[in-house]
Design a protein that fits this description.
alpha/beta, Transcription Regulator spoIIAA, 4 helices, about 40% helix
Amino acid sequence: MNDTFRLTTRRADGDLALAALAGDLDLTTASTLRAEALDLIGRGHRHLVLDLEAVAFCDSSGFNALVAIWHSAKEAGGSLSLAAVSGRLARLLNITGLDTLLPAYPTTAEALAAHCQGGGTATA
C-alpha cells in the first residue's frame, strides 16, 4: 500500500461526472476521495460514475468513503455508480452487501449507458 492516489475528472456534463481513480484507496487516501467527490456533487454533478480500473487496493476506509459519497449523491437527488471494478473488489462489494447500493459495471461505457437509460441509480 502507498499513499499515492489521484481522482481525475474525465467528464463533467450537466448533472453527470465521470471520474477515474488511481492508486490505493485506504485510510490515508479515503478522505481525499471523499472531499474531491463531494466537491463534484457540490458543483452540481449529482450523478457520479467512478472508474476504479486503476485502484489497486481498497480497505474499509475506502468502502466507508464510497458509502459517504453515495449518501451525499442520494441527498442531492443523484446516484453513484462504479465502473471497471476488479474481481477482488467486486467480491468484497458482494460480501459486504454494498453491491446493492453501488451498482458496478464492467466498463465506463456500460455505466454511462445505464445512467442514460435511467439504470444508474440504486435505492435503499
